[in-house]
Amino acid sequence: MKTRRIGYTLLTALLLMLSVSTSKGQCTFHNTAFNGGEYLVYNLYFNWKFVWVKAGNASMYTVSSVYQGKDAYRASLTTRGNSRADKMFLMRDTLLSYVTKDLAPLYYRKGAKEGKRYTVDEVFYSYPGGKPHVKQHRMDNDKKHHWQEHTYNDCVYDMLSIFLRARSFKPEGWKKGNVVNFPIVDGNSREKARIVYNGKTNIKADNNIKYRCLELSYEEVKKGSWKTIATFFVSDDANHIPIRIDMHLKFGAAKAFLISIKGNKSPITSQVK
Fold first, then answer.
1. Could you tell me which of 186, 243, 184, 190 has the C-alpha nearest to residue 212?
2. Given a cut of 50, is residue 16 above it in pLDDT?
3. Do the beta carbons of residue 100 and residue 126 sit within 8 Å?
4. What is the DSSP string of the chain?
């Protein structure tokens, strides 16, 4: 469905600019990119009958919190279409993720409103014996609930927890064409995907500031071969903030441009004149 694909592609593009490797223990990772209180906002544009139309916004807010008695980060990501876009499709996605202070996933929820449809995905994480265990829950539009559980030898992430972890990746030494593979889980599946590094370029955001960015392509396997789902541009500094995302949709194209950053942990040294 168009709305589902838009929301999925946007959120995946926002969240998946990463270097993923299996960590021992609880799949922890040293956070160098953000503090609680960071707030990112984006303008969304869609290509409608060969015309680019402003279609809404997306925002992400990360705060310090507590989950089941543990100190944690709580991250929320929302996409909202405007009244003009609602006439073409309804887009109301809300994601929530809790991770430990050292970025091990704890809980994930995605509520997706697609026209008259509403679905929910949840993932509950635990680490018995040091191995990731996930309890996955999917509520379909007909209100039927589906549950499954899996234990893995490698680390798994949802779209928000992988974004938080990936913000601390270190691309120094990467060469054009470098490939990183990783697993993603949601309420009813585990998928393979990859990132391809395409070098550096300068990008102007909707705040009228130009940034030096790392260009990466997010790819999935479709009909036996890799297909580019999105190309995104992340600031080439310690924050690794997505500045622009280009989405390749079944019915056209979409773009997201950064309009504001608040509460960034490190100085934004990627700005260029």
1. 243
2. no
3. no
4. -HHHHHHHHHHHHHH--------STTT-----S--TTEEEEEEEEEEETTEEEEEEEEEEEEEEEEETTEEEEEEEEEEEE-HHHHTT---EEEEEEEEETT--EEEEEEEEEETTEEEEEEEEEE-GGGS-EEEEEEE-TT--EEEEEEE-SS--B-HHHHHHHHTT---TT--TT-EEEEEEE-SS-EEEEEEEEEEEEEEE-TTS-EEEEEEEEEEEEETTEEEEEEEEEEESSTT--EEEEEEEETTEEEEEEEEEEES-SS--TTEE-
* Span 237-250, pLDDT tens digits: 999 998 998 887 66
Nearest to 165 by CA among 22, 10, 263: 22
Tell me the pLDDT tens digit for each residue of 94-115: 889 999 999 999 999 999 876 6
Task: State the Cα–Cα distance between residues 79 and 11, nearest whole angstrom.
Answer: 8
Burial class for 267, CB neighbours closer than 10 Å (0-12, 13-18, 19+) = exposed
Q: What length is written for the chain?
A: 273
Q: Which residue has the higher pLDDT, 73 or 56?
A: 73
**Residue 264 CB partners (closer than 8 Å, separation 6+):** 34, 38, 239, 241
Tokens at 144, concatenated = 């039927």
Q: How confident is the model at residue 11 (pLDDT cuts 50, 70, 90)?
A: low
pTM of the full predicted structure?
0.81
d(CA 250, CA 3): 11
